């Protein structure tokens, strides 16, 4: 799966890493539902850090279509709330 972190670039994520990313996504959703800015910020950074860690960075000139777009680390809780789909930021 090709993932774009807004403002940073793209990474390729193996299917085997989706379960751990979905768990972090669920924690992020809970923080948004609770409208808890502190926990939201922690969970958003944890999710993005994990994507960066497990993902293989694609070259800046790569023209791969992103299958998933994640917010930047400085996104507001409201901005991320608007990006949430029925299954969070990460499908599955």
Automatic annotation (TrEMBL):
Domain PspA-associated: 1-92
Top-level taxon of origin: Bacteria
InterPro entries: PspA-assoc_dom (IPR054437)
Protein name per the record: PspA-associated domain-containing protein
Species for this entry: Acrocarpospora pleiomorpha
């Amino acid at each position: 799966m090709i993932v774009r972190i807004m403002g940073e670039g793209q990474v390729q994520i193996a299917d085997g890493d989706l379960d751990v990313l979905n768990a972090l996504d669920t924690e992020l959703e809970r923080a948004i539902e609770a409208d808890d800015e502190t926990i939201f910020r922690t969970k958003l950074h944890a999710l993005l850090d994990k994507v960066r860690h497990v993902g293989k960075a694609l070259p800046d000139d790569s023209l791969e279509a992103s299958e998933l777009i994640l917010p930047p680390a400085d996104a507001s809780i409201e901005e991320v709330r608007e990006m949430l789909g029925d299954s969070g930021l990460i499908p599955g």
